[in-house]
């Protein structure tokens, strides 16, 4: 899901930085307004948590493993705007300090994984678990569905971003300058892997983590903490 | 029937290799090399120009020249070239090299015929556009990844995060990044210890369903611990004089050599983009 440098052209990268700028501004204003002084470290903890989730190898049938992004999970735990900041911080650290995900593609990666994924995942979770008691199984199912749909929408958008490159950037003879695959190849490739494998990993991890938290620490999923209401 | 699952071993390997890479990077940042001596703020600005150059160039020959400059800078910065090549080629460029293979053929990239391969009576045509497009794509990826890694292994990570201030990013973001960076190591240690404990008690032979429950339990336990840790951290911040307005200490010093370096990079940037646009 992390788009590396060199896959997207300069204008595409620029557009996504421009799109993310107001989102980051709104996110920081909302979080600053709603975050109690005592909760300041929770943003950094949320960011580190998003970073570390991606390092958990999840076993899947066939003896292999995959990993979750955890975007919907972080949004359910922190609220979508705080999750946007936390995941952005994790993505920037990954790209800048550990070479995972492109530096020029930070805007696009943040749009897919720090904005679309947590927001889609969170609002699907909210819609399905609407009025459900705190110990209801509906919350577990809602979290799984949110995780699955959130990551697939993000993968679909990443596929479109890849697929637009040969249309936007090519030489007169038709040579691609960036990602060489058009929409017909890039979208099914991105969606196929996520709908069949990684989406399920995301759904299982999100649902099971919420299930365990409901059992062991339901206060962390309570109905109205300041951050989650926004 | 229980299937052998290596998720515990793989999680341990990824946590350990992450920590090992960080130790190596920290060792390189402490060396007395060329890039280590440049003011981090000007270094970030100059590397931003390298990233922009890499993304704008349309000629693979100029990307090769840029790659040569990157390797030269790595040498002058006392980086072990073998380690650097291994660190930069694995994983993203090798992955890019593999995924670009179908784009060589005229099924995906129609155009003039460059080579024709006969495999099991099937005729596969490599198009000129496909071949040169793939070459440009892989070169662009390796150049960008190499510069990103070079920046991170020649600049102290904490200093690198502090340079965000020159781009006008609010201090609360810079502070969050700094704190997050510290927490990552703490969390990785927790993950490593937990997996070692599981491995020593139940081994690695677990069916995948049980494994998924173990992973989810680990993540939820990590969040539970972290959430409560947040309150302790806030208490520690207050005891050190935190007044809800984060202050980042600025201890950067710029020398004339740093400005000379930036001047060289700007000139290089202008010339290489001029050649790229003029020749194409």
From TrEMBL, chain A:
<keyword id="KW-0813">Transport</keyword>
<feature type="transmembrane region" description="Helical">
    <location>
        <begin position="195"/>
        <end position="214"/>
    </location>
</feature>
<feature type="transmembrane region" description="Helical">
    <location>
        <begin position="40"/>
        <end position="60"/>
    </location>
</feature>
<feature type="transmembrane region" description="Helical">
    <location>
        <begin position="72"/>
        <end position="98"/>
    </location>
</feature>
<feature type="transmembrane region" description="Helical">
    <location>
        <begin position="6"/>
        <end position="28"/>
    </location>
</feature>
<dbReference type="Pfam" id="PF01891">
    <property type="entry name" value="CbiM"/>
</dbReference>
<dbReference type="GO" id="GO:0000041">
    <property type="term" value="P:transition metal ion transport"/>
</dbReference>
<protein>
    <submittedName>
        <fullName>Cobalamin biosynthesis protein CbiM</fullName>
    </submittedName>
</protein>
<feature type="transmembrane region" description="Helical">
    <location>
        <begin position="110"/>
        <end position="128"/>
    </location>
</feature>
<dbReference type="InterPro" id="IPR002751">
    <property type="entry name" value="CbiM/NikMN"/>
</dbReference>
<keyword id="KW-1133">Transmembrane helix</keyword>
<keyword id="KW-1003">Cell membrane</keyword>
<keyword id="KW-0472">Membrane</keyword>
<keyword id="KW-0812">Transmembrane</keyword>
<dbReference type="GO" id="GO:0005886">
    <property type="term" value="C:plasma membrane"/>
</dbReference>
<feature type="transmembrane region" description="Helical">
    <location>
        <begin position="140"/>
        <end position="160"/>
    </location>
</feature>
Automatic annotation (TrEMBL), chain B:
<feature type="transmembrane region" description="Helical">
    <location>
        <begin position="163"/>
        <end position="184"/>
    </location>
</feature>
<dbReference type="GO" id="GO:0006824">
    <property type="term" value="P:cobalt ion transport"/>
</dbReference>
<dbReference type="InterPro" id="IPR003339">
    <property type="entry name" value="ABC/ECF_trnsptr_transmembrane"/>
</dbReference>
<dbReference type="Pfam" id="PF02361">
    <property type="entry name" value="CbiQ"/>
</dbReference>
<feature type="transmembrane region" description="Helical">
    <location>
        <begin position="129"/>
        <end position="151"/>
    </location>
</feature>
<dbReference type="GO" id="GO:0043190">
    <property type="term" value="C:ATP-binding cassette (ABC) transporter complex"/>
</dbReference>
<keyword id="KW-1003">Cell membrane</keyword>
<keyword id="KW-0812">Transmembrane</keyword>
<keyword id="KW-0472">Membrane</keyword>
<dbReference type="InterPro" id="IPR012809">
    <property type="entry name" value="ECF_CbiQ"/>
</dbReference>
<dbReference type="InterPro" id="IPR051611">
    <property type="entry name" value="ECF_transporter_component"/>
</dbReference>
<keyword id="KW-1133">Transmembrane helix</keyword>
<feature type="transmembrane region" description="Helical">
    <location>
        <begin position="259"/>
        <end position="275"/>
    </location>
</feature>
<feature type="transmembrane region" description="Helical">
    <location>
        <begin position="88"/>
        <end position="109"/>
    </location>
</feature>
<protein>
    <submittedName>
        <fullName>Cobalt ECF transporter T component CbiQ</fullName>
    </submittedName>
</protein>
<feature type="transmembrane region" description="Helical">
    <location>
        <begin position="49"/>
        <end position="76"/>
    </location>
</feature>
């Amino acid at each position: 899901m992390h788009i590396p440098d060199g896959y997207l052209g300069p204008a595409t990268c620029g557009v996504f930085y421009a799109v993310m700028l107001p989102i980051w501004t709104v996110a920081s204003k909302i979080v600053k307004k709603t975050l109690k002084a005592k909760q300041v470290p929770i943003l950094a903890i949320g960011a580190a948590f998003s970073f570390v989730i991606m390092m958990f190898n999840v076993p899947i049938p066939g003896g292999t493993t995959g990993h979750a992004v955890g975007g919907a999970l972080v949004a359910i735990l922190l609220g979508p705007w705080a999750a946007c900041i936390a995941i952005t911080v994790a993505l920037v650290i990954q790209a800048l300090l550990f070479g995972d995900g492109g530096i020029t593609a930070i805007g696009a990666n943040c749009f897919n994984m720090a904005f679309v994924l947590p927001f889609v995942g969170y609002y699907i979770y909210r819609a399905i678990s609407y009025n459900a008691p705190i110990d209801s199984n509906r919350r577990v199912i809602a979290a799984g569905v949110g995780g699955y749909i959130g990551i697939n929408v993000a993968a679909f958008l990443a596929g479109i971003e890849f697929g637009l490159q040969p249309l936007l950037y090519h030489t007169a003879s038709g040579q691609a300058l960036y990602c060489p695959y058009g929409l017909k190849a890039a979208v099914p490739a991105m969606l196929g892997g996520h709908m069949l494998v990684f989406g399920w990993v995301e759904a299982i991890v999100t649902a099971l983590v919420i299930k365990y938290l409901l059992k062991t620490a339901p206060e962390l999923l309570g109905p109205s903490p300041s951050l989650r209401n926004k | 029937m229980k299937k052998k699952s290596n998720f515990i071993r793989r999680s341990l390997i990824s946590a350990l290799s992450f920590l090992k890479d960080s130790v190596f990077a920290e060792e390189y940042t402490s060396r007395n090399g060329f890039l280590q001596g440049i003011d981090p703020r000007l270094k970030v600005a100059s590397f931003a120009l390298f990233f922009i150059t890499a993304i704008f160039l349309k000629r693979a020959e100029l990307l090769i020249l840029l790659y040569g400059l990157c390797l030269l800078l790595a040498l002058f910065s006392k980086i072990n070239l073998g380690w650097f090549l291994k660190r930069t080629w694995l994983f993203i460029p090798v992955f890019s090299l593999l995924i670009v293979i179908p784009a060589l053929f005229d099924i995906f990239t129609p155009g003039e015929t460059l080579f024709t391969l006969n495999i099991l009576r099937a005729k596969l045509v490599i198009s000129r556009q496909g071949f040169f497009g793939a070459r440009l794509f892989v070169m662009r990826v390796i150049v960008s990844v190499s510069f990103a890694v070079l920046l991170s292994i020649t600049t102290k990570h904490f200093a690198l995060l502090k340079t965000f201030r020159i781009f006008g990013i609010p201090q609360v973001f810079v502070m969050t990044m700094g704190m997050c960076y510290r927490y990552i190591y703490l969390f990785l240690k927790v993950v490593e210890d937990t997996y070692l404990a599981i491995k020593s008690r139940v081994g690695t032979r677990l069916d995948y369903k049980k494994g998924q429950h173990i992973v989810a339990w680990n993540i939820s336990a990590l969040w539970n611990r972290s959430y409560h840790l947040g309150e302790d951290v806030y208490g520690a911040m207050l005891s050190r004089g935190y007044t809800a307005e984060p202050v980042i200490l600025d201890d950067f010093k710029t020398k004339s050599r740093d400005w000379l370096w930036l001047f060289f990079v700007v000139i290089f940037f202008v010339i290489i983009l001029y050649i790229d646009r003029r020749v194409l």
